[in-house]
Specification:
InterPro entries: AAA+_ATPase, ABC_transporter-like_ATP-bd, ABC_transporter-like_CS, Metal_Ion_Import_ABC, P-loop_NTPase. This protein is α/β, with parallel strands linked by helices. The strands form two sheets. The protein has a six-stranded mixed sheet with strand order 6-7-8-3-9-10, with helices on both faces. The protein has helices at 49-57, 79-84, 102-110, 115-124, 143-156, 173-190, 201-206, 224-234, 246-249; strands spanning 2-12, 22-33, 38-42, 64-69, 72-73, 87-90, 161-165, 193-197, 209-214, 217-222. The protein is built from nine helices and ten strands. The structure holds adenosine-5'-triphosphate. Adenosine-5'-triphosphate binds next to helix 1.
Length: 253
């Protein structure tokens, strides 16, 4: 179980002239994520979703508030110590490593070089070929392949809490459903508390609970049905007052 108590995240406001010298990115977030449940964090661009995910992982340090994981306060813990406690994080933009193969990355994540076990993890993310193990994790991989690799290294550790930031970035439409299934299977098999930051309908439909963020605050928690009116409200453009017309702005709305 993960408890967030009155979490704030503020940064220096570089644009401030006479205004406040700080920008509040997360504004008094309190929420409890139950063990083994699937949570979808969503909301408009720039509302603070990634900031919240990073604050849970310790990449951002909360300016105020407490984070309690399985009864232990982790607010001041480093990223590494949080990882040791069983928290894993999949980045929105995955890293590539020159000179490192998929086998190396998986072996580090899984803590074993047993080929059978590594192949089992590979199969879970939809790579069936043994050849794939010795592919370098470098710029020759496609965006979708690198995303799958990141997913594989996250599940290899069977974390107690898995946080995925926009896991569908670069993934084709046909791979999203299997990805959702895989995440759900991890939850069933290992009771992994799962947080997915996403705008994607497939993840939002699969989640047990949605957490809707608006301007750094929780605007809604609950099921998708209840979120729908708010989601359509939030999709309304915030810049209509300034807008000079759709063609000018290349607006897709
Ligand atoms: N370290 C930081 N310093 C200054 N501003 C920041 C910092 N981190 C985040 N922000 C700002 O906070 C706001 C929220 O960012 P965040 O990445 O959390 O949004 P998001 O909801 O994940 O957006 P998206 O859907 O576009 O990925 C943005 O305006 C961003 O520029």
């Amino acid at each position: 179980m993960l408890e967030l108590k009155e979490i704030y995240f503020t940064v220096p406001d570089k644009e401030a002239e006479n205004g406040p010298a700080e920008k509040t990115i997360l504004n008094n977030i309190s929420f409890t994520f139950e063990k083994g449940k699937f949570y979808g964090i969503t909301g408009p661009n720039g509302c603070g979703k990634t900031s919240l995910a990073k604050t849970i992982m310790g990449i951002n340090k909360a300016t105020h508030g407490k984070i309690i994981y399985n009864g232990k306060e982790i607010t001041e813990m480093s990223i590494t110590d949080r990882a040791r406690e069983g928290i894993a994080y999949g980045f929105q933009h995955s890293a590539r490593f020159k000179g490192v193969t998929f086998r190396d990355l998986l072996a580090i994540a899984a803590g074993t070089d047993d080929e059978g076990k590594l192949m089992d993890i590979l199969a879970r993310v939809g790579f069936c070929s043994l050849d794939f193990l010795d592919k370098p994790v470098d710029s020759t991989l496609s965006g979708g392949e690198i995303k799958k690799i990141e997913l594989a290294t996250t599940i290899a550790r069977h974390p107690g809490l898995a946080i995925y930031d926009e896991p569908d970035t670069g993934i084709d439409l046909w791979t999203i459903e299997p990805m959702v299934k895989l995440i759900k299977r991890q939850i069933t098999d290992y009771e992994t508390t799962t947080i997915v930051v996403s705008h994607n309908k497939a993840f939002l439909e699969a989640a047990d609970c949605l957490v809707l963020i608006k301007e750094g605050q929780i605007a809604y928690t609950g099921d998708l049905e209840g979120a729908k009116p708010l989601l359509s409200d939030l999709s309304v453009c915030r810049y209509t007052d300034l807008c000079e017309g759709e063609i000018d702005a290349q607006c897709y709305r």
